[in-house]
């Protein structure tokens, strides 16, 4: 193969790569915009009380002084329904125990409210809107599964697969757009 035909072939490949890179960018612009904004917010969550509420401090970090977990859960449910809205689901997603702070955080699965109670007394310490959980669900696409598809994780799986493959595609084509012209100059 002579030098001119080799160079022409490299230029043709470079044009194809540029078209793929441009098409990926144009078609996935909103996806990457959402992922980047929510990623930035999640990165700042520990430094912003608006995004993630500060953990309150209870009266005792000694677990042997704590009330039974079912009692704490019942208290948290009562506080949630009395203070936020009586019709809210009390279906539990997880309990975040912070023994060093003497607090149990009850996080519910059907909405973005959390209740922090004193582990030893069961007293309400904080009612929090869990904005960081909401942002995380937008970030990974699971908000669609939660709100529109009644649970599961099919949309999240598709969303993260498309995002990951697109990022891989951008990385490869971006590298080639940088390296291809250098290679042609040789």
From TrEMBL:
Keywords: Membrane, Transmembrane, Transmembrane helix. The chain crosses the membrane at residues 20-44, 157-179. This is PepSY domain-containing protein. It comes from Flavihumibacter fluminis.
């Amino acid at each position: 193969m002579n030098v001119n035909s080799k160079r022409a072939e490299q230029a043709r490949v470079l044009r194809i790569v540029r078209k793929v890179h441009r098409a990926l960018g144009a078609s996935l612009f909103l996806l990457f915009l959402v992922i980047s904004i929510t990623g930035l917010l999640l990165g700042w969550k520990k430094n912003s009380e608006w995004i993630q509420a500060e953990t309150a401090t209870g009266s005792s970090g000694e677990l042997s002084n704590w009330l039974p977990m079912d009692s704490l859960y019942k208290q948290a449910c009562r506080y949630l329904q009395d203070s936020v809205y009586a019709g809210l689901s009390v279906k539990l997603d997880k309990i975040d125990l912070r023994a060093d702070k003497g607090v149990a955080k009850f996080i519910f699965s059907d909405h973005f409210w959390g209740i922090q109670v004193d582990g030893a007394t069961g007293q309400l310490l904080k009612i929090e809107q869990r904005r960081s959980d909401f942002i995380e669900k937008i970030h990974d696409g699971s908000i669609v599964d939660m709100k529109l598809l009644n649970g599961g994780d099919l949309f999240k799986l598709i969303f993260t697969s498309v995002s990951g493959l697109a990022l891989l595609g951008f990385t490869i084509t971006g590298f080639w757009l940088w390296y291809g012209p250098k290679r042609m100059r040789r």
